[in-house]
Structure to design on (165 residues):
């Protein structure tokens, strides 16, 4: 069995290759929609337990070990303020660039963009922005995830309300 980082590289390469084939056949927008089928639900299953009812930074920091096993070198910074629960994710490893290199094609941040869109659909109160992309020539990838601070406390507030009722 290959190590997890090899599995991740294979998955990313295959996803990029599938996107490129679908884009050539159906165009960019349709290709993205096809690849998003079921993705928001999987994203909700993976991220939900880490971020629901708690600050984003707690869930993102908890996930760093999993990402490291997958071959990602990244860190998460708490950017929360003024009623906004926010995290900045800084990635030194770009799987979009790695997948493109393995396929010998021009790098594109499409894999991250698909991940962001799946996250937005899974968590409608969350905004996700790709601020910097290595696939566009930057030294690191930087992503910002944000939601109202009340979402970070939602489960705790609901539990407290239930206890006092």
């Amino acid at each position: 069995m290959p190590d997890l980082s090899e599995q991740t590289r294979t998955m990313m390469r295959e996803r990029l290759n599938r996107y490129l084939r679908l884009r050539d056949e159906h165009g960019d927008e349709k290709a993205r929609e096809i690849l998003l089928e079921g993705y928001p639900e999987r994203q909700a299953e993976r991220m939900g337990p880490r971020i629901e009812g708690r600050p984003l930074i707690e869930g993102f920091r908890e996930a760093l070990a999993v990402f490291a096993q997958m071959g990602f070198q990244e860190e998460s910074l708490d950017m929360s303020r003024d009623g906004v629960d926010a995290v900045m994710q800084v990635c030194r490893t770009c799987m979009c660039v790695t997948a493109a290199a393995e396929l010998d094609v021009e790098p594109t941040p499409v894999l991250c963009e698909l991940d962001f869109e799946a996250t937005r659909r899974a968590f409608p109160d969350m905004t996700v922005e790709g601020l910097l992309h290595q696939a566009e020539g930057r030294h690191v990838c930087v992503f910002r995830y944000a939601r109202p601070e009340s979402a970070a406390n939602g489960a705790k507030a609901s539990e407290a309300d239930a206890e006092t009722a």
Summary: The chain has one domain: 4-164. The two ends are 52 Å apart (CA to CA).
